Structures
1.
Amino acid sequence: MSDHEYVPSSKFGKWFNDRLPLLTLASHLTDYPTPKNLNYWWTFGGILTFCLITQIVTGLTLAMHYIAHADMAFESVEHIMRDVNYGWLIRYIHANGASMFFLAVYIHIFRSLFYGSYKSPREIIWIIGIIIYLLMMAAAFMGYVLPWGQMSFWGATVITNLFSAIPLVGEGIVTWLWGGYSVDNPTLTRFFTLHYLIPFLILGLVVLHIWALHVPGNNNPVGIDIKKPSKDTVPFHPYIVIKDGFALLMFMIVFAFFVFYSPNILGHADNYIEANPMVTPAHIVPEWYLLPFYAILRSVPDKLLGVVAMLSAILILAALPWLDTSKIRSAVFRPLYKQFYWILVADVLILGYIGAMPAEGLYLLIARVATAYYFLHFLVILPVLGFKEKTIPVPLSITEPILGGSPNLAMAKNKESLNK
Amino acid sequence: MSDKKPERRDFLFTASYAVGVVGVAAVVWPLVDQMNPDASVKALASTEVDVSSVQPGNTITVLWRGKPVFIRRRTQDEISEARSVKMEDLKHPEKDEDRAKDPQWLVMLGVCTHLGCVPLNDKGDYDGWFCPCHGSHYDTSGRIRKGPAPLNMEVPKYEFVNANTIKIG
Ligand code: HEM
Ligand code: FES
């Protein structure tokens, strides 16, 4: 929150601002004091906003040509690809945009895990983030159903059937979701409606996410509370705007590479075959960004427990601010946590790889160990670590380790990581 | 709540909230129920299938209510295999006699009871069906024997209209 009262310079500006203080809001956003040591891992918030806008703009234009009907959806997507002016470009941006969105959100989440950004006083920011992530998965899943290819159809069948694991009411819920006795036209039309709606819900949550962020201000690589504004901060504009802009350009290069050079590499070839309720493709896999959870689902031999494990794997993140008992935020000052953090990263990558492999033999064994470790990390290691770990003393301010003497030697060694 | 004696006003508040809740529920229910199967979906209740050309050892797949239905004319070996299984060995114990009234004909939904994929014919460790999605094995009676699926493949309501025609539903 900026400390000064903003007064517009023009007479009209003042007249308007007295009635609707939009200019005060704009001035708050430009002056917003930001820690001066933010590294590039902090640029993904801006990148995510870009991704959301990209999906909304390309989605709206696709919706002008797409037909949500089981008999016409597949053809209408081919029509977009072949006949609509630049339709191929818009669709490829939208389809790869979903992957880019998830790439960015995973980096953003793991950034928070490393620097302890979920800890007090930022729990609400974190929980809103988890809700956004859940809605993103729902949006992407339903979007993938729309082209009505084989993967669309069977992905929809398998995912909606997860609800049938619920005792007693499960079957009723699945029939209600489908609007019939199998995935069919009624399912497609409602998925289109929800796919259209959810991104706007996400947009609303993003506003709340940033609002909640602007109350305590950004966390930073050192993870200490800072005085704002002070020698430790810089105004958002132009400093962060330029840095975010540069990172966004780099990100767009990667994005453009996928769109123009390998637009289908992240998709599945079977989705260019029209949906056929009589034949399941030999190997059904979800989109890459859902693979770790898919691996967890399959690692449990019981239907209900498998679904419970998969959902808990996501929901456990919401409890993270209370599961992590350490008061120190940044992993820079937590030598043990830092190691467990990288083990967790590896664990999730392994789960992702296994999720794409058949669920048998050695793969199944590895999936089970990795699933067990995932829960062990959050339920045992993190709570215990807060009490057992000997942390490195944190500096008093961001500038201290660079300008003043450091309180201890280990700190001096860590100078480099702070300087990033 | 305080120790204050309830007044007429408290009663009015409670009554208004109660009426309000009923009113909201009455509006929400149609909005929820519209998603359930509609009249036209329910109307597609039954299908008749000509099975005269199906040879022993063959399966045909027909679509009923948007779902595949397997109709298999079983060989003598398959029947005896299905009927000799001990009930203790089954995850979902059902006698083959109850699943296939006429032992030659096995009619069931070709839908894996795990998460709804269509299992493959003549595959798996039990000479019946194998579901490629997450590896469920079914025997020659369509009963679950191994893998994550909890139940046997479902036998729908069906009847022989005449020697050559099965009516499903
Ligand atoms: C959170 C933002 C969004 C995500 C993650 C997302 C994701 C997806 C995905 C993964 C597909 C399937 C792409 C394919 O393989 O063809 C898709 C398709 C589609 N989406 Fe979105 N989408 C988002 C926002 C929107 C919005 C706001 C609209 C409309 C206003 C929209 C309209 C469509 C349409 C019409 C299709 C079908 C055409 C096609 O398959 O390319 N999307 N979406
Ligand atoms: S759907 Fe058949 S094993 Fe999962």
Note: The pocket of protoporphyrin IX containing FE (ligand 1) is lined by residues A 55-56, 59-60, 62-63, 66, 77, 91, 94-95, 98, 101, 136, 139-140, 143-144, 146-147, 195-196, 199, 202, 267 (CB under 6 Å).
2.
Amino acid sequence: MTSLNGAGQIALEVNNLQVTYYTDSGRVKAVDGVDLTLKAGERLGLVGESGCGKSTLALALMRMIKPPGRIEAGSAIIHTDMGSIDLLKLNEEEIRQARLSKISYIPQGAMNSLNPVMRVGKQMIDAMRSHIPRASERELTERAEQALESVELKRSVFRMYPHELSGGMKQRVCIAIGILLSPKVIIADEPTSALDVVVQRQVMETICRVQEKIHAAVILIGHDMGLMAQITNRVAVMYAGKLVEVSTVREMFTDPLHPYAQALIRSLPNLDNKGIFQGIPGLAPSLLRLPSGCVFHPRCEHAMEICKSAPPPKSVTPAGRFVSCHLYDEQGNRAHVTGHKQKPVASP
Amino acid sequence: MKIGYLVRRFLFLVFVVWTAATVLFFIPRLSRVNPIRERFAEIQRSTGYAPRDLENIIKAFETKFGLDKPLIEQYLDYMGSVLRGDLGVSLMRYPRTVVDLIGQALPWTVILLTVTTLLTFLIGTGIGALAGWPRSPSWVKGMVTPLMVLAAVPGYLLGLLLIYFIAFRAKLLPLSGAYTTGRFLGPELSIEFILDVARHAILPALSLILTSVGFWALGMRGMGVTVQGEDYVNFAEHKGLKQGRIFYWYYVRNAILPQVTALALAFGSIVSAGILVENLYGFPGIGSLLNAAILANDFFVIYGIGMITIVAVGVSMMIIDLTYPLLDPRIRYDRK
Ligand SMILES: Nc1ncnc2c1ncn2[C@@H]1O[C@H](COP(=O)(O)OP(=O)(O)OP(=O)(O)O)[C@@H](O)[C@H]1O
Ligand code: SF4
Ligand SMILES: [Mg+2]
């Protein structure tokens, strides 16, 4: 499942995205200078410890950051056949129109994401009508029922209330809503975390199938590295608000570049088995009081003097891998090789 | 299954009404005051007339009204006649019947309280909904506090202030009554009369609305704050819905559910809700009648008013029970 299905065209381009929460105890830089490029049809996994800013990144792209949060800087450009738009520059009405039609979000808590007093079908039609107000009721009903079928639900779900559906069915309804208008980018924020393992797998496969059908780019947020390995094309590892490495699945699992990514992969029970990320030694940093230099240095086994003072550069290897660590120079070559380091996890 | 539920629900209503009516029957009897003796004492005070064989006359009246029988027998008699639709005669306005007195007073109360209850519900719920909505301007969010202060003022005190400043000092509105007695002999169907009634009803209505709108606002804001943070409201925004649609169909529609239950109960208790205010404004409704009946220990009028109150509450509870599944599909008839 790790092939790029006709990927080529760039769908989403994120540059220097910064989001800050102004909390009572101080400023929390939850997303700090994130760059990311997604191609149409591509599936990117976004992993990282709880609280590292994954959901904040997703919500920023949807322009759904609420006070005390603020998007401080950056751009998020979606390329469509009709031209390019910067999500972060749109006004209220424009971003409203862009939601669901250009970029859609499948929420973390699908259990409660459907209005309990409204039939499923009405909620789907509601969503479409707010973007195509002049469409006929019949046409919208047909589209909604087709969307339900494409996520393996019966058409009759259209007339049901959310409480009549199981958790997996609700999640599928949310996916069906997410693809109603064939958006360029779909963000699924831990879409399966509340479901049992079998249903998780089915739901993920459903996301992949409908995504391939509409050729959208997908950002899949989650903790389950095993699931990521089977489903995604590339994996982005986030640590304390920053991306530390973005590589293809194969590269990430056989030769992770960043020490945090290495620790992450090593902590998996077995490369071939699925495994849920258990955590690595040391405490996740408080985003309120971040270490100087490289934010990972207190936990890093490769830490050097320079890591304590200077933030690491952003490097891109010739193969297109992104890594941000003093161990690599701007071209992504291993720059500092010192004696007391332990051996790399694997070599290319 | 639905018919079975209806039958069960109706039997439950009968049981509630019967229990409440029984309790109601015995409470006024705890007082040892004899209403007939009181009535003659009052006649003597006001007219100086005192019949010579007072004790015999009292006895005769007691026999006539059945008040000399054992309490249990009286209870059974009363329940029997209630079933026949007969609420007895008034002790204080004999020979007028309880049905007659209530029939005269009830329309006034129903009109005044129906209008004020509806208005209070709409205004309070509206303000509360806006106050709980994160995008509202801060002055709207702050509106609930002064309303709560107002709600803490007793209704009659606020009523007195309104009477003093608006009716007495500024002479903008009439002081009391339901219509200008000098102008009309009695209720009639004309534009002038209706306008006159409306003018008289403004101050009582205002007292009722101002003192309870805060509770509705507070209740709605509380639910609103909870609902606005729900995933389905967020997801509605992710879907790209317009704010107005999210506000009404996703936010208000869910937050209002407990308010609707409260509204049904408020409608059930309109008979008793206006007692203080009605008395203050000399408004000829059920509240004034009940007040007079309690002062005169007029058992049968108290029972009569009590009965219609209980039935009104019971029936509105039944109605809300039966219609609630339409509002909230998660509730079903066949669930326990
Ligand atoms: N509304 C908010 N107000 C203040 N701080 C917030 C808010 N939302 C998130 N944060 C902070 O921003 C940081 C990133 O949160 P975010 O929800 O993006 O993490 P996450 O990676 O999605 O975590 P998880 O895996 O648990 O979902 C956290 O440290 C959190 O404390
Ligand atoms: S920059 Fe230094 S501390 Fe940070 S991950 Fe690389 S080696 Fe470790
Ligand atoms: Mg999250």
Note: Chain B touches chain A through 23 residues (CB under 8 Å).
3.
Amino acid sequence: MSETQIIIAGAAGEGSKKAGLLIAKLFNAYGFRVFIHEDYESVIKGGHNFSQISVSKKESDAIKEKIDFLLALNKEAISKHKEKLKKGGVLMYDSDVIKNNFSEEEKVEIAGIPLGKIVEKAEGIPIMKNTGLVAAFSRAVGMEWKKVREVLEKELPIATEKNLKVAEIAFRSFRRIKEIKETGEEPAPLLSGNQAAALGAINAGLENYFAYPMTPSTGILQFLSQIEGVRTFQPENEIATVNMALGSAYAGKRTMVGTSGGGFALMTEGVSFSAQSEIPLVISLSQRAGPATGVPTYQGQGDLLFALNAGHGDMTRFVVAPGDVNETYYFSGKALNMAWKYQLPAIVLLDKELSENTYSFDKSFRKEKEEAIQGEMNGGYNRYDREDISPLAFPGGGAVVKATGYEHDKKGVATEDAEAVKKMQEKRMRKYEKLKEEVEDMESVNVQGEGPMAVVFWGSTKGVALRAVKDLDVRLVQPIILQPFPEKKMKKALSGVKKIIVAETNATGQLSRVLKEYGIKVSERILKYDGRPFSVEELRKRIKANI
Amino acid sequence: MNNLILPTKNTWCPGCGNFGIQRALGEAINKTDKNRTVLVTGIGCHGKMADYLNINSVYALHGRAIPVAEGVKMGNGDLQVVCCVGDGDTYNEGISHLLHAAKRNSDITVLVHDNRVFALTVNQPTLTSPKGFVSTTTPKGKKEEALNPLEVMLSVGATFVARSFAGKPEHLERIILEGMRHPGFSFIEILQPCVAWYSTMEIYNERAYEMEKEFLPLAEAKEKAQEWDYNNGERIPLGIFYKKEKEGFDKQLEKSFFVDTEKILEKSK
Ligand SMILES: Cc1ncc(C[n+]2csc(CCOP(=O)(O)OP(=O)(O)O)c2C)c(N)n1
């Protein structure tokens, strides 16, 4: 079996998401690299949900328009996705709820599976139909029952026996259509961007995580609440959330909060407070299609300029926009370290696709905890001492530790004196300069290829971009750190380039506007703002139109 | 308490009720553990307490002292956390935090410097200014009635509800100490005359009295809180209306400890 695209679809509540994960885990057990794109509506029951699983021997963080398998749990799944099937593709559906009235000249293989009857026979419950469909599919692609059983056993902890019975009947009643061989690679951890952000932060010493639920960021709070060790709490709103995080960090705990655009809007006073008080603050911001409530469960990269400018007053934030789970794991840890080293707000800018899609994780990327500069815990301590970075001390250790949102003297007492105001602003500016220098030394920009035409992109578009330019003479450039902007690195990455195209999922070309600020001229913008990510075919076509 | 005064220039008006509160708070801190104490203030004249006392402090944003204080407690449960907030600060800008902190019994002591006016922004009405209150933005008098904060706190389940008066520093000191020692959320409403915009010293001196019987059953406490509802009522009772022992909220949260991410990665294969 080579590269394969599978869609499993059904009504919300029918378990297509779980089934999609099962399929990914099955291929993972055979050593394939997998990627799951989740598409669901903002409803609890009834809406249309689907997972698209991309399977390949190498990294495969993107979906294609054309698919090999369509697994339909209801009728709508067929009408919505049938057109995507390739010639020779396979449609598998629940023949107990869908009548076969497909026309003769269909160029796809059609297989009805009596899922209702299978579940009945196994004395299961209707939700187990998805297990049956997955099992029949695993047979179709040529998997061994023993291996399938092993994976299902691990992944279906509730009513395992019944589920396995459904699976076995469905598996045995179906036929083998394709062949599959183990790739020889070890199975990889499968992580969503949200999970990677949480784990990466833990490596860098995360102790407290506070969040108010908002799609697509909620997964972080759910994930951390389910593993023990990080103290989690859901406050009354985002304003409380960010202020609690500031209090917790002041008391000495590495703390992160997570939200999406609307909640971030409420948190911005805290971003500003962090800058002025120099209390470290880390916000994981998962963008979705906006403005306002927007399209809650769909993709958008419309908060870049907002994040770069969030908070009133003159300040610098550390803003990083990773492109896949490996980068998210590494850079969320980095963001925590930078927030504590430089004592300022850090924003990990994710987007719906990255936050909620599942990726094969390459665990060579890891950022360990770096200690912040500690102050002496004695009576002579001044919180805002020094010319740039002031040593941190925490209350209870012997020193008097004062933090404030007013402009202040070195002790942390409010001041309105012109000279003192200027001096303290300059102290912070020197700190920002140091950070900027360090950013230039980091892996802040990714480059691939040497072509005279560059495609610049950011965030979750990475996976698509890498595949879309296959065999094209195109240079791919991905800025990862966006503030302080790695100007030198970026200009070097683009040297010799004749034409720059920027691809992003927003309507106003926000990254182009950032580049313009640094004198980088963008010739074309490839924008997408329908709430969906680029597919490989679409992006490739739109890039080729510019060559 | 002079040991706690910072040599910062003090800009409270002569005769300001904040001096009495400062004295009482300073004495109370001296009787507990100064090193373990964190003061979190809001924005307004009251907030300057952070600049005037030589103790750990966060001078938080307008209306946000309470969530910051709760965060401090969640960050380090060994700290003793006290908030100095204003009536505009916490009843207007930040009331949702006050209600939630009281409801969840966060182990913080909240001192509301209730001068019943936005003082620092030079005279506008707050939620506790009486109906008819004339100010720079209500030249014809405030149209809403005042809120009775004690009634609200008793209704949302605050486990320590008291009222004192800036003109009675000894009374106030005793109540602050009781509040600090209370294991959960302590709400201390402090009647504070504002010499600049709402000079209430005489009225309070005349009408405020110390309750003989404190620690009332909830229903009685609620009734007592009605004796003066910030709009009507002849006499103003002071003291601890209600107190109930209940574990502080931070004690109920899971502790943070080392997490082995390798194990989690292994499980997610
Ligand atoms: C978000 C925000 N809104 C408004 C202000 C302006 N402001 C400063 S102090 C204050 C009112 C303070 O009143 P109160 O809390 O009663 O304190 P007091 O000065 O009476 O002690 C206001 C509205 C601010 N600093 N921040």
Note: Chain A touches chain B through 59 residues (CB under 8 Å).
4.
Amino acid sequence: MDKLKEQILRTSGVNTLKCMRCGKCSGTCPSYDEMEYHPHQFVYMVEKGEIEPLMKSKSLYKCLSCFACVERCPRNVEPAKIVEAVRLMVIRQQGENHLTANDIPDLLDEDMPQQAIVSAFRKYSK
Amino acid sequence: MKVSYFPGCTLKNKAKDLDKYARLCALKLGVELEEIENWQCCGGAFSMGEDEIASKLSSVRALQYAKEKDQYLVSVCSACHNVLKQTNYQMQNNSDFAFKANNYLAFDNPYNGETKVIHYLELLRDVIGFDKIKENTVNPLKDKKIAAYYGCLLLRPSKVLAMDDAENPSIMEDFIKAIGATPVVYPYRNECCGGYATLEDKNLVNKKSGLVKNSAKNNGADLIITACPLCKYNLEKNNNTDIPVVYITELLAEALGLKEE
Ligand code: SF4
Ligand code: SF4
């Protein structure tokens, strides 16, 4: 098996073969309109080993980790874990952080809760 | 009775009222929220990677602290609660992860998921009891129609959070009834507000928060309540629909006669 796919399956703990491509995950995804690749596509593209296009896609940073797809998938595939694993594959590389501390001051306003900043860092940077 | 309390970073800063009234109301109802010494930020969002260890250690420390005191671990912030419960679940169900986390933390007694993690709402429902809240309500909020906003973090994934039916929850509606108000059930109560995307995609967040507010308002609500500072922020920044958003603990304080003006 190709190394990238193997690593994503290991990090996510997901069995992509359980997916029956019903599309329910994508149908319920709040970021559907913003994504070039949708949750069900993440699952089957990883299964087919087409991982590089996913790694380059901005869709990685549109997932809100809302667990709607995890909750509503009838086959218990947990697609968000695949999205997370691909994102981790990218940001674990040197120099590939999506957000850096220097970006923060311009993004703040006086009401912004700390929670927004720490969660974004957890999802976008290593 | 005393419980271990994990306030989290935001309740010490932008969401001070959520924290203050949580403590005051619990005390009035016979529970002291004992803040965990030297707690560290949970990180705000659970890292779903099974091989992510370091980012979960602060949660494991809090879990171990509560275990040693033989207390419930309580948080009010939906995000802290979600991270703590998911980390606890991983400690219980993933022996490889638990082995590595214990190896790193080197506690005198290893931690294996013994602590019971509960949200403040579960404390109210399961430990204190909604009946007791009803008895202690001095200002019943009779004329208020209130929309409970669950968002995503409070209920999902339900296999792990195990707090309520994720698609048809009732814990917040029952809370609203206990303080004498009328709950409004509306379709978007468990859909995402846009979350942390607020940092870089205002447009996305505005759309998602707008759907929630509209849905609450169109179903007749006067007010939205939440336990999450980020939900509150995102909903308030959307100014297309005019409906106030308040913390669950502020509303409880009002009902119990503890609210300072
Ligand atoms: S909901 Fe589940 S089974 Fe359906 S397409 Fe998505 S991952 Fe596959
Ligand atoms: S967790 Fe991510 S991919 Fe899944 S429904 Fe939510 S935003 Fe979409």
Note: The radius of gyration of chain B is 18 Å.
